[in-house]
Design goal:
Elements (H helix, E strand, L loop, with lengths): L8 H11 L5 H52 L17 E3 L7 E8 L4 E8 L11 E4 L4 E3 L6
Antiparallel strand pairs: 1-2, 2-3, 3-4, 4-5
């Protein structure tokens, strides 16, 4: 009679433990390298998109300012450069956003004694390094940018 010998239970446990011990150093280094590469590619695109969203916020605030000027003129027959008269909590210059870190500053220039105006959103803080410059609107609705390819 021939008997088949089975490996001892301790040897089986040792083999199972060795095959499921976790990541090797090479696997971990590859994962870190892939993560670093994805971060290097995605972070600049994300930051560029953040700057673009700040420009959109500034343009929206500037268009709102122009609408407030028109409402003011409809009852007073003149434009104003007093922010509180337009419903803002302070006078010009006004920060956009009004809380946190401002990225743009809104200002109003009166022309012809209040017969017309020009409002401008000027980058400030971290947004100043954006390179897209300022954005303006007049009482006639003419909009202009110092760098048209950005706005």
């Amino acid at each position: 009679m021939h008997t088949i010998s089975h490996p001892p239970q301790a040897l089986i446990r040792q083999r199972k433990h060795a095959s499921s011990s976790g990541f090797t150093l090479i696997e971990l280094m590859i994962a870190v390298a892939v993560l670093g590469l994805l971060t290097a590619l995605a972070l600049p695109a994300y930051q560029k998109q953040i700057l673009k969203s700040h420009r959109t916020d500034a343009k929206t605030a500037l268009l709102d300012l122009a609408a407030r000027e028109e409402r003011y003129r409809s009852t007073n027959q003149i434009y104003t450069n007093v922010g509180t008269a337009l419903g803002y909590s302070s006078n010009f210059p006004i920060s956009v956003p009004s809380s946190g870190n401002p990225t743009y500053t809104l200002s109003v220039n009166m022309v012809a004694g209040g017969g017309s105006f020009s409002a401008t959103a000027t980058p400030s803080g971290a947004q100043a390094g954006d390179g897209c410059g300022s954005y303006s609107i007049t009482d006639t609705g003419v909009q202009s940018a110092s760098q048209s390819n950005c706005w």
